[in-house]
Design a protein that fits this description.
With 289 residues, the protein is α+β, with helices and mostly antiparallel strands. It is 39% helix and 16% strand.
Length: 289
């Protein structure tokens, strides 16, 4: 970024055979004086992997989500915000789409929601730990580092049998006009029970929670990238202001005004750059294909 921000983000495009498995692949550098940190909150999102390449620099190096010095931090799908602190650091980030979760993790996503893991210690991520050898290094040539990681991912796991249905579910829930579970199931020609099972297995949450989360994240993504009040960005499917505030508290654990009063130095910069490069400010709004 060329705006004087201490945050520099470069996005990478996954090749066609892997693209449906990832929401975002990026390298981020945070250039702050030693000991200085920024505080922000991650929005509800899909699973993520973060690989730190600056861990040898000492205790001032950031651990993005936890206090421990973990070079590979992994998260399951979330429906809550995650507070974090970050200081001078270099890291690779890879967002796993629900299809990516099914392919590379393969566990029941509902058992891993709203949790941060040490990726090297959590058995579910064992098939991805070799990425540390590729990404947890201070490599000057980011393109070469990226290609090395892609080669590793191609060998990690085959596509799951449910791939087409997982992508269809994600694309359906991305429709801003889809607000009822009955219509969700009908759109996919699935029974409500089958849809429930599929969503919990690969997405982590029930269909109703997923639709509610989408509505909130659409509003949050607009708020981060478009100046103005909540009134100017609130999703059209909230019945009224009281409904919006109730849902906001349910997911975010605070009121909209409390969230607006907080600084968002990392997420604001990241969301704006992601929308410029990728087309959407946050990864839960992406559709596949």
């Amino acid at each position: 970024m060329a705006d004087g921000s201490p945050i520099d983000v470069r996005f990478f495009t996954a090749p066609a055979d892997l693209a449906p498995c990832f929401t975002t692949i990026y390298h981020m550098t945070v250039d702050l004086p030693r000991g200085e940190r920024m505080v922000d909150m991650l929005l509800p999102e899909w699973a993520n992997m973060r690989f730190f390449s600056d861990m040898a620099a000492g205790p001032d190096t950031a651990s993005l989500l936890t206090a421990g010095a973990q070079r590979f931090q992994a998260t399951g799908p979330s429906a809550q915000p995650t507070r974090f602190e970050i200081g001078q650091s270099r890291m690779w980030g890879m967002g796993l789409s629900p299809l990516g979760w099914a392919r590379f993790v393969g566990e029941e996503a509902a058992n891993y929601v709203n949790v941060v893991f040490d990726g090297e210690a959590e058995e579910a991520f064992a098939g991805l730990t070799r990425l540390c050898e590729k990404l947890c290094q201070n490599e000057a040539d980011l393109d070469r580092q990226f290609e090395s990681a892609i080669a590793e991912l191609r060998e990690a796991a085959p596509m799951p049998k449910d791939a087409d249905r997982i992508v269809a579910v994600q694309n359906a829930m991305g429709d801003p006009y889809l607000t009822h579970v009955e219509d969700f199931a009908s759109r996919l020609a699935l029974s409500k029970r089958t849809l429930e099972r599929l969503c919990k297995r690969h997405f982590g949450f029930s269909p109703s929670v997923l639709l509610r989360r989408q509505r909130l994240v659409r509003t949050l993504g607009a708020f981060l990238t478009e100046p103005g009040s909540w009134t100017s960005v609130i999703d059209r499917h909230y019945h009224d202001q009281a409904h919006f505030v109730h849902e906001f508290r349910s997911f975010m654990g605070m009121s909209p005004s409390e969230y607006a009063a907080m600084p968002h130095p990392v997420l604001g910069a990241f969301a704006a750059e992601r929308r410029r490069v990728w087309g959407s400010p946050v990864q839960t709004l992406d559709r596949q294909g």
